[in-house]
Amino acid sequence: MSASSPSQPRKLFIKTYGCQMNVYDSERMAEALGSEGYVTTDRPDDADMILLNTCHIREKAAEKVYSELGRLRVLKDANPDLKIGIAGCVAQAEGEEIMRRAPVVDLVVGPQSYHRLPAMDRAVRGGAKALDTDFPADDKFDTLKARPKARRAPAAFLTVQEGCDKFCAFCVVPYTRGAEVSRPAAKVLTEARDLVAAGVAELTLLGQNVNAYHGHPGGLAGLVRDLAAIDGLQRIRYTTSHPNDMDAALISAHGDCDKLMPYLHLPVQSGSDRILKAMNRKHTADHYLRLVERIKASRPDLMLSSDFIVGFPGETEADFEATLDLIREVAFGQAYSFKYSTRPGTPAAEKPQLPEEVMADRLARLQALLTQQQRAVQQSMVGRTVGVLFEKPGRIAGQMIGKSDYLHAVYADAPADVIGQVRPVRITTSGPNSLGGVLAG
Ligand code: 5AD
Ligand code: SF4
């Protein structure tokens, strides 16, 4: 076990669950604890501090945390100096209960409080327990130090907006992440320039409702255009969006901003107007279809991705068929689909639930259709030449792996110096989850 002396850095192991914002938050938490002398490790048995950055979106995600805590108890028995912390949305929603139920936990920190981790770390090192699930008035991004200048991977996340005011009837996000808050554009631009100076070529702007961004007078489109002016930044993406916040300026940016990639994750959840209403989505299936038409008119080769929930309370076979119809009409290149999961405290949790086997059957049918569409879209890439940002070596010697403009994973034989560059690749093969190709310039 590693001892914690000033001459020897303390080791931090972070396990990240859930969405891309948690990936970003984990990086920032590691940076915050870096100022306390922590370096990251990928071995939990070698760590002085283990943080679980958790997800509360579905029941299974939250359960995983408790089973992981059971496993961590063994490590703590072997190393009583080990400190264990829970961060993220389970911390926010159930922090006090976790402290009660799981004595192994020393520290609980909500998603808006992690700039306070250094002080919390000092408290737990002194033998205390620390819990902070406030929505503090101070901005965590102001308190966090500028990001370290170390060389970074070519693709990075950048949080620009947090929280959600939409209150979809099934969703805990408005409760765990709080109200919508946008970071001022000037601060986002500074962080973006620093990331580009550290080698980043592609930025994915993150927000629970990123297209509701209002930290720039021109909204998200204005921010995208300012970012596009940064030399060295080659690609911009954003996720995740609500259909009702796709404004005309953002739709035209997809048409004329070359750095904005032709890929859009636009969750629809259901194709039934009755269910969309019960979900409090505030749009109809037709509204979504017309919106997709407008976006595709602006950027014809745009690839669409979405989220679907099957088995929302009250969903009939006819409602489910309407979702399949919408999927057939749009043709998604990629999608995430889930069985409805009851979340305590949300409006839908009060309603009678559908039988598990009905949900399982619908999910299987929905996923079969989505997989078929995803394969067809991938197959249609064969023979085309697409831009690929190379990110790392593949498992086979001489092979490099990157992401296409459409976010497909692409393998190609290439020299190592392509890493960090966007290069044209002619796609030659389509596998289950990736494409293969040859450098075309
Ligand atoms: N049950 C199932 N899926 C959910 N999602 C959010 N809340 C729930 C829930 N209670 C899904 C939605 C959302 C994605 C991030 O997770 O599809 O878009
Ligand atoms: Fe949740 Fe997204 Fe609906 Fe907000 S818009 S409540 S984050 S599903």
| CATH homologous superfamily placement of the domain at 10-132 | Methylthiotransferase, N-terminal domain
Biggest pleated-sheet summary: 6 strands, parallel
Q: How much strand?
A: 15-25%
Low-confidence stretches: 1-5
Structural class: alpha/beta
Helix content: 25-40%
Distance from N terminus to C terminus (CA atoms, Å) equals 50 Å
Q: Kindly report the spatial arrangement of strands forming the biggest sheet.
A: 2-1-3-4-5-6
Cα-atom radius of gyration = 22 Å
Let me know the average pLDDT.
94
Overall spatial form: globular
CATH-derived topology of the domain at 10-132: Rossmann fold
CATH architecture assignment of the domain at 10-132: 3-Layer(aba) Sandwich
What small molecules does the structure contain? 5'-deoxyadenosine, iron/sulfur cluster
State the CATH class of the domain at 10-132.
Answer: Alpha Beta
Tally of strands: 19
Number of separate helices: 13
Walk me through what this model shows.
With 441 residues, this protein is α/β, with parallel strands linked by helices. Among the domains are: 10-132, Methylthiotransferase, N-terminal domain (Rossmann fold, 3-Layer(aba) Sandwich); 385-439, OB fold (Dihydrolipoamide Acetyltransferase, E2P). The protein has 13 helices and 19 strands. It has a six-stranded parallel sheet with strand order 2-1-3-4-5-6, with helices on both faces. It is globular and about 60 Å long. Residues 1-5 have low confidence and may be disordered. The structure holds 5'-deoxyadenosine and iron/sulfur cluster (SF4). The site of iron/sulfur cluster has 10 residues, from helix 6.
